[in-house]
Fold this sequence. Notes:
By secondary structure, this protein is mainly α. The protein has three helices and no strands.
Amino acid sequence: xxxxxxxxxxxxxxxxxxxxxxxxxxxxxxxxxxxxxxxxxxxxxxxxxxxxxxxxxxxxxxxxxxxxxxxxxxxxxx
Length: 78
């Protein structure tokens, strides 16, 4: 259980670090899918073959990070 918490925390930190790499420079839109896939690759989170799915919680965290970034942009532009 503690290992899961540490891994989840590490994935959240990593997502914050890479969000700029997955943000469209023209629209400012964050691509949550590619961000989650990069995190899954980095932390070896892909499921077993043949599907090799990314866990849903990684996508959820990517969406949370994207939302935080978008909210911060809206707040700073006011």
